[in-house]
Structure formats: C-alpha cells, structure tokens
Amino acid sequence: MTNASPRPNLAISAYQHLKSDIIRGVYAPGEKLLMSRLKVRYGLGIGPMREALSQLVSEHLVTAASQRGYRVAGMSVQELEAIYDARAHLEGLVLELAISRGDDEWEAEILAKAHTLAKVMEINSADDMLDVWDARHKAFHSAIAAGCRSPQLLQARKALFDQAERYRHLWLCQTVFSEDALETKRQEHAALIKVILARDASKAREMMLEHLMTPVPVIKQVLRDRGLV
C-alpha cells in the first residue's frame, strides 16, 4: 500500500495565485479585496486566504486596515523611483563583488543564460512570450548576481525585486512585444557581458546602474496613461 501524496500547502497556493493576479493587474491599486470573492476565485477557505493576505501585507502588495479588511496597495511614482534606485545601487554592488569573486564556471553560466534569452523570439504565443522572456531575463541577471557569493546580499536583492514586480510588469508589457525594445535590451546585455568578462568592475557597475534604471521613464508614462497615479 502506497502512501498518499502530501496535500499542497493551501496558504502557499493562495499566496502565489493572489500575488500573480495583483502583479498582473487583475486587481487595481486601492481595490478592496473581499474575502467572499477571493474564496470563490481561488477555491480556498478563509484560513489559507488570510495567511496569503498577511504575507502580501509584509511584501507591501496589500494593505490591512483594522475592521476594514484588505486592499491592494497603491502605486506611486515616488515608490517606483525609490525601489528602482535601491535595486540599481544594490545590483551594482553585487556585480562588483561578483566580478572579484566569480570564476570560469560563473562566466560560463552567464553566457549560457544570455544565449537562452537571445533565442526567446522563437516562441509564438504572446502570453508565453512574456512569461518566458521574463523568466529567462531574470535567470540571466541572477546568474550575474550569483557570483557575489553572498546569501545575505542575494536575499536583499530578491526582496527588492519582489517589491518592483508590479512596476516591472507594466514595463514588460511595453517591451516584450516590441522588436525594437527587445533589440535594445539585447544590445545592452551584450555590452554588459563584454565588460563583465573583461573584469572591468567600475565600468560594469556604471552600466548596470544605467541598465536597471532605463525602465523607469517607461513605467511612469504607463502609470499616467492608465490613471494609476
């Protein structure tokens, strides 16, 4: 007699699905998250949904008011600029450390992830295109960051990345479906790799800062166009 497979953690499932919907704009900034509707949409009880909402409050994607329930956190240009500024400077530091600590295997992994990212145009479905390009783009930058060999810095990097997700999604929708925008990104990545392999830490940090801040003007315009700020 074989043991039954373990039941999935319902709170984790609720958290993952709700977070994805918030990032993708299924719920608008400031929208009230009614427990009755959440239970129906995700097919889960109050307990798992409350756990999921509490986790999202800690990640600043949801706000909680005493006796007033939960709402999707607002979005603002000020928050956008603050998050991206922190991300860019931390990524620059991580990159400098990676260049000083990374080995040949680290370099090979960067090149492998860049090659995979460059082949994303072979995907036909629009939805798959966005998801796959995003995943491969994250993997490319994570491969670069991994060379710093600091779990603490990488954890801080992930936390800032998570805070930026809603804003990044707006940028992705403007970028992934534009061949010109993708070509610009390919050129930026190629130039960055060249400097990294040359072990020019100062130049690489400067380029990384510029690279990570380029989405900000695009996101600002989308926020304004959609009346989100």
UniProtKB/TrEMBL annotation:
<dbReference type="InterPro" id="IPR008920">
    <property type="entry name" value="TF_FadR/GntR_C"/>
</dbReference>
<dbReference type="InterPro" id="IPR036390">
    <property type="entry name" value="WH_DNA-bd_sf"/>
</dbReference>
<keyword id="KW-0805">Transcription regulation</keyword>
<keyword id="KW-0238">DNA-binding</keyword>
<dbReference type="InterPro" id="IPR036388">
    <property type="entry name" value="WH-like_DNA-bd_sf"/>
</dbReference>
<protein>
    <submittedName>
        <fullName>GntR family transcriptional regulator</fullName>
    </submittedName>
</protein>
<dbReference type="InterPro" id="IPR011711">
    <property type="entry name" value="GntR_C"/>
</dbReference>
<dbReference type="Pfam" id="PF07729">
    <property type="entry name" value="FCD"/>
</dbReference>
<dbReference type="GO" id="GO:0003700">
    <property type="term" value="F:DNA-binding transcription factor activity"/>
</dbReference>
<dbReference type="InterPro" id="IPR000524">
    <property type="entry name" value="Tscrpt_reg_HTH_GntR"/>
</dbReference>
<dbReference type="GO" id="GO:0003677">
    <property type="term" value="F:DNA binding"/>
</dbReference>
<keyword id="KW-0804">Transcription</keyword>
<dbReference type="Pfam" id="PF00392">
    <property type="entry name" value="GntR"/>
</dbReference>
<feature type="domain" description="HTH gntR-type">
    <location>
        <begin position="8"/>
        <end position="75"/>
    </location>
</feature>
